[in-house]
Structure prediction request, 304 residues.
Amino acid sequence: MEFVKDLISIRDLEKKHIDLILKKSSEMEQALKEKKKLSSLGGKVVATLFFEPSTRTRLSFQSAAMRLGAKVLSFENVGVSSIVKGETFSDTIRMVDGYSDLIVVRHANEGSARYAAQLADHPVINGGDGGNQHPTQTLLDMYTIKRAKKKIEGLNVTLLGDLKHARTMRSLMHGLGMYGANVTLIAPKGLEMSREVINEVKDRFGAKVEEKSKMDFSGADVLYLCRIQKERFSDQYEAEKVQKEFRITADAIKGVKDDLIIMHPLPKVDEVAPEVDQSKYAYYYEQARMGIPVRMAIMDSMVV
Ligand code: NCD
Prediction:
């Protein structure tokens, strides 16, 4: 089955595309376990262009590409590239398109990955464009949920945190709606998910979405939280104020379902108390590990 030429937004994918990645990710996980040598990207060059900070997304893309036999090209940081001399984003993409067979790009501007895909002949994968989309994170989140719970449909999933600015949340909300999960949204005041995103998911998939203000996770199968996205606030004082107040403590997870999993795209800042971190519910390190098989599955499905 054909995947997509460029992976820019989860909104561009159909269920058959996501099903393909979920199935292939499990095959990749198995292949990794068996230490199989894979070579579907043998002789190819993958470029990772990260104009915004990253640990997991960049490193797991690089590791996944190498595990498929590709070589990786990257600037270690933007400060040593010609961006500091004033080179434009579009010129950088045009150049790198000539040096590589697949480009993974992260940039603070919403729409930057789509723009890169228009400029490049080779496939482009969005590693996060501002507060907009983070499709590969969503695919790995969905894979993690399905792997742990054996299904997505009918699960009660609570999304908690800065739902206004987090691209991980926007993307995941769409994926969950498409697969029939019941979504509960809890955000600090002023950081609620945009109406547009909620309405789209409701209209397209008839998804059940509930908004709550209390930190009550009693019916949840999955609690997915994220940090306050400080860099997307115009007022840093405001961001720090919310960050200080927003935290899940041991009290907040009293009375939760025994098999609840707590997910987080990471990085965590102060929002998770150490007792929660050490609880049996914490599932984020396992989740982060899934970045490798899922990103292998994604690149393997693209025509490189
Ligand atoms: C996220 C991101 O960059 O959007 N990180 C990630 O890719 N795992 C989450 C975040 O920065 O809060």
Summary: The mean pLDDT is 95. The first helix runs from residue 15 to 33. The CA atoms of residues 64 and 295 lie 6 Å apart. The first strand starts at residue 45 and ends at 50.
